[in-house]
Amino acid sequence: MHEPQDTRVIIIGAGMSGLLAAMRLRRRGIDDLVILEKGDGVGGTWRDNRYPGCACDVPSHLYSYSFAPNPHWSRMFAPQPEILAYFTQTAKARGLDRHLRLGTEVTHARFDETDNRWSVTAADGRAWRAPALIVATGQLNHPNIPDIPGRKRFAGAQFHTARWDASLPLTGKRVGVIGTGASAIQVVPGIVDRVAHLTVFQRSPPWIIPRGDHRFSPRLRGLFARVPLLRRAFRWLIWRKLEASWPAIGAPGGDKAREMEALAHDHLKAQVPDAALRAKLAPDFPIGCKRTLVSDDYYPALTRRRVDLDTRAIAAITREGVQLADGETIPLDIIVWATGFASHGFLAPIVIDGPRGTLDRVWRHGAIAYRGTTVAGFPNLFILYGPNTNLGHNSIIFMVERQMRYALPAILKLARGEARRIEVRSTAQEAYNSALQNRLLTTAWAGGCESWYKTGSGIMPNNWSNDTRAFAKLMRRFDAEAYEIS
Questions:
Q1: Which residue intervals of 330-421 are DSSP H helices?
Q2: 258-302 pLDDT, tens digit each
Q3: What ranges in 203-328 are assigned the alpha helix state H?
Q4: 12 with 105: CB under 8 angstroms?
Q5: pTM of the prediction?
Q6: Which residues are registered as beta bridge partners of 106?
Q7: Rounded CA gap, 403 and 405, in Å?
Q8: Positions of E strands within 78-222
């Protein structure tokens, strides 16, 4: 065990949220901080997800920091290498390199009541201590591979989209993609031209609306660079358009939901001429219940002669391929798991040890927090992209910027020694979450479909219950009256 290094703020994670926290703190004069990152670089999900076709499903000018605009995005929806470059270059330009500790996998964080500090330990034994701890590990960083019988018996190669094996050639291979969520609708068109044959295994079809992606001309990129007002107006228009889609989720069955369902049906009909294939691709649940996806090229990829869409249930994985419920086995050389992430564990597998127990025990029935940011029983702890801050209609960067604005006064007090302990009251947290979960029950996410938005007990720990304007209003100021401060 190494002697702990003292600092003012510890940040776990160098993805979008962790970099944001460090930049906001440095702007306010807090330079004594450390960013602990398990990977070999910054960027979080954009470092991990490198599969063919990987891109953001939020327009680039909104999926970027409000204080660090990029006028040079090449497309309306930037591809993964461009997004990763943006985070890497922004971190470097803002002087974060010297605060980064890459290859540092945090395993344990413990709050010491004798000096009101967090002690954070890495897998290699290194340790740090600070009065304030920010956990910015995100909701979507632990790949989920379903426990299908026989999975380890498969003789070919298999990997999750978030662990893509770029060294493996796809040319001439029979490839199976299991799952039809957000990564699948990108990777299928991304690899369809390389493979000999592609089988897409679908449990239920998603709602898909047109993406409307296009390149930005050099002239327009030049205008964005020279005229900041134009760039800001464009960003605002994107945000406003996405915000206008909230009623499709917040008021299921209403006019906006019917409008979006009609848009999706028209999109499907225009891109898939075969009636039998269209029937397989038509969702049987209200729009918004699962994540609504955007794509211009997924449906056309499924109409290719080398592609089969199989909707039969998977019974097992065999040495040869995928065995279906009716007994037929689809022979494969490669299996791609496009099955999403274990989204309900949040900070797991890091052990967060507070004065009255561990966070995984407190969250055993579902993750809860106050305003998605602080947790009763865990003083001086701040979570970015925490419980109930995810969205289904807008940019998560908008949300995390509001979280950091909210928490910053408290973090500064701790970092500057103006307060020793700041802990949200359990009564405030309980009242907040009761109202939040009741509101979520009126949204499309509470519908009859299965989704990663809900736990087995029906709790919805991931998503915010309203539009982003409501969140911005809620997070406008740090409400010290909801906290015990000493």
A1: 359-362, 396-415
A2: 999 999 999 999 999 999 999 999 999 999 998 999 999 999 999
A3: 218-226, 228-243, 247-250, 255-271, 275-281, 298-302
A4: no
A5: 0.96
A6: 122
A7: 5
A8: 100-101, 106-112, 117-122, 127-130, 132-135, 157-160, 174-178, 197-201, 208-209
- Cα 128 off chain centre by: 27
Q: What is the pLDDT confidence band of residue 448, given thresholds at 50, 70 and 90?
A: confident
Q: What local confidence, expressed as pLDDT, does residue 349 receive?
A: 86
Task: Say if residues 149 and 353 touch (Cβ distance below 8 Å).
Answer: no
213: Cβ contacts below 8 Å, ≥ 6 apart: 75, 76, 77, 296
Tokens describing residue 401? 């910027």
| Residue 79 β-bridge partners | 55
Residue 189, classed as helix, strand or coil, is: helix
Average pLDDT taken over every residue of the chain: 95
Average pLDDT over residues 303-311: 97
- Beta-sheet pairing, 329-331 with 321-324: antiparallel
User: For residue 343, what pLDDT band results from cuts at 50, 70 and 90?
Assistant: low
* φ, ψ dihedrals at 70, nearest 5°: -125, 105
Residue listed under structure tokens 């770029």: 166
The residue type of 284 is: D
Band the pLDDT of 346: cuts 50, 70, 90.
confident
Q: How many CA atoms lie within 13 A of 478 on its CB side?
A: 21
CA distances from 347 to 13, 92, 169 (A): 11, 26, 35
Residue 192: both structure tokens together: 């369809």
Report the Cα 195 to chain-centroid distance in Å. Answer: 29
Which residues lie closer than 8 Å to 441 by C-beta, 6 or more apart? none
223 alpha-carbon distance from chain centroid: 31
Distance between CA 385 and CA 260 in Å, rounded?
27
Q: What is the band of 455 on the pLDDT scale with cuts at 50, 70, 90?
A: confident
Using alpha carbons, select from 101, 96, 119, 34 the residue that is nearest to residue 351.
119
Q: In what order do the strands lie in the sheet with 197-201?
A: 157-160, 334-337, 174-178, 197-201, 307-310
Does residue 383 have a pLDDT over 70? Answer: yes
